[in-house]
Amino acid sequence: MPMAVDVDPLLHDPLTGLPNRRLLEDRIEIAAAQAQRLERPIAVLRLDLDRFKPVNDVRGPRVGDEILRRIARRLASSILEGDTVARTGGDEFTVLLPDVRHEEDAAKVAESLRRAVAAPVFVEGEREPVRLTATLGVAIFPADGHDAESLLRNAENALHRAKALGGDSYQLCTPEMNRRAAERLKLEEDLRAALAREEIHVRYQPIYRLKDGSLSGFEALARWTRSGGREVPAEVFVSLAEEARLILPIGRFVLLAACREAARWKGRGAGPTVAVNLSAWQLREPRIADEVARVLDETRLAPSRLMLEITERVAVQDAELTARVLAQLRGMGVYIALDDFGIGYSSLAYLHRFPVDALKIDRTFVQELRPGSRGGSIVAAIIALGHALQLKIIAEGVETDEQAAFLRAHGCDEAQGYRWSGPLATPDVNALVEEATV
Q1: Which of 113, 191, 239, 422 has a CA-to-CA distance to 125 between 20 and 30 Å?
Q2: At what angle do helices 234-243 and 247-262 cross, to 10 degrees?
Q3: In degrees, to the nearest 5, what angle opens at C-alpha 171 toward C-alphas 21 and 192?
Q4: From residue 40, how far is each of 23, 48, 108, 110 by CA, in Å?
Q5: Contact indicator for 50, 132 with CB cutoff of 8 Å
Q6: Secondary structure class of 179 (helix, strand, coil)
Q7: Nearest to 420 by CA among 394, 397, 393, 392
């Protein structure tokens, strides 16, 4: 017969070994204080086993205790390191998520926990497995409370509302949160289906040399056009793909499509370059350099015509890994650009450490370009710094003649934006390349 877990009963539940309510409340208070400083949300989830009492009454406390131990292990294995699952009642558990981006992230965890509970529980000596369901309530800091007491209370209120709706489900604290979470989860499901339906496609924004106005290359940008011709805003689509970890298949698709398209361009000299963004998930792929090499070989595109872009924020997440991967890519002859420069973690140390060929000035600075303005001074300084390090400088988001003139006057090498063109479909790109070679 399984023995109870030997733990400190002041802080842990003796039956399951999980933290008890006292330890949980301490952790919620600490997480809330950190979240307040970092201006980020946390989530508290209350989970109740549906109809556990009848099972416990019929099968006896031995089986009931074993079920609780097994459910506890399932819940603990369903959360990330740094999260907490506690036993806070007879058949009630509470989960603390100290780092969530959106309420739909907590909703996804709630659904994962609900499914974990729903799997059959096999208990030694019992002929039939036990099948249970779970109901959950979710509260989000700071919208639903600023301390452990209020967050636990509001998660409990959401739990009761889910029970009233029939159980075996979850509810967030407010109907508006439930609506937003449901919309986000539906959009994620649609994105997964879109990959199979080939609704993801690539558009190309031209990049021009400011010195003479000639075409330099294009930036490849993933786009999602849903059935009926409605395009999902790029910022929504890319953010969702990152969070759902769908950015890897999308990134592979864009890299292959862009290199294949660029290999067809016939321009002056070697032809226009193509710039492709690398996400944080792609950068962490163990064989990303091999994948890029395979794509270049398959499409027969010269490495010097491919520029891979990473943002500052992505680059500094793991500086050692970034430096190693970029060195491999650059060693192949691929060009490297540091994107969104100036809004992340700009540092001379990183510029010295990372093998990059170009800096892309973020559009937020370009929008503020005026003679004598603070934004203008920052852009001029970035250009001077980049040139001192023998880096090419590319400005993003140029929309007016005045912005282009300012950049040209201060020696910026290249620029892109609606001043010249938005992202183009393949036929328009081909026409532009042909026109540029005449």
Answers
A1: 113
A2: 120
A3: 115
A4: 22, 27, 18, 19
A5: yes
A6: helix
A7: 397
The model carries a pTM of 0.63
- Helix, strand, or coil (residue 188): helix
Three-class SS of residue 359? Answer: strand
Report in angstroms the alpha-carbon separations of 383 from 10, 84, 231, 376.
Answer: 60, 47, 35, 11
Phi and psi at residue 369, in whole multiples of 5°?
-70, 115
CB atoms within 10 A of CB 290: 11
User: 421, 217, 210, 423: which is closest to 304 by C-alpha?
Assistant: 217
Write down the residue that tokens 């993003």 correspond to: 396
Peptide bond preceding 9: is omega within 30 degrees of 0, i.e. cis? no
Q: What are phi and psi of 209, to 5 degrees?
A: -80, 125
Per residue in 339-365, pLDDT (tens digit) is 887 665 555 667 778 889 999 988 888
Q: How many helices (H) does the chain have, and how many strands (E)?
A: 17, 14
* Positions of E strands within 189-245: 200-209, 215-225, 231-232
Strands (E), 299-343: 306-311, 335-341
Determine the Cα–Cα distance for residues 193 and 319; give it in Å rounded to an integer: 35
Q: Are 149 and 108 in contact (CB under 8 A)?
A: no
Q: What stretch of H or E contains 45?
A: strand 42-50
The amino acid sitting at 352 is H
For residue 308, the tally of other CB atoms under 10 A from its CB is 25
* Pair of tokens at residue 59: 């099968």
For 402, how many CA atoms within 13 A lie in the half-sphere containing its CB? Answer: 7
Q: What is the pLDDT of residues 16-64, one digit of tens each?
A: 999 999 999 999 999 999 999 988 999 999 999 998 988 888 889 999 9
Q: How far apart are CA 386 and CA 411, in angstroms?
A: 11
Asked if 303 and 334 touch (Cβ cutoff 8 Å), the reply is yes
What DSSP letter does each residue of 231-264 carry, written as one string? EEPHHHHHHHHHHTT-HHHHHHHHHHHHHHHHTT
Which neighbouring-strand residues pair with 341?
361
For the chain, the straight-line distance linking the first and the last C-alpha, in angstroms and rounded, comes to 85
Give the pair of three-digit tokens for residue 16: 């399951």
* Residue 210: alpha-carbon gap to chain centroid: 34
Which token pair is 83?
């999260």
Let me know how long the chain is.
438
Indicate the Cα dihedral angle 132, 137, 141, 143, nearest 10°: 160
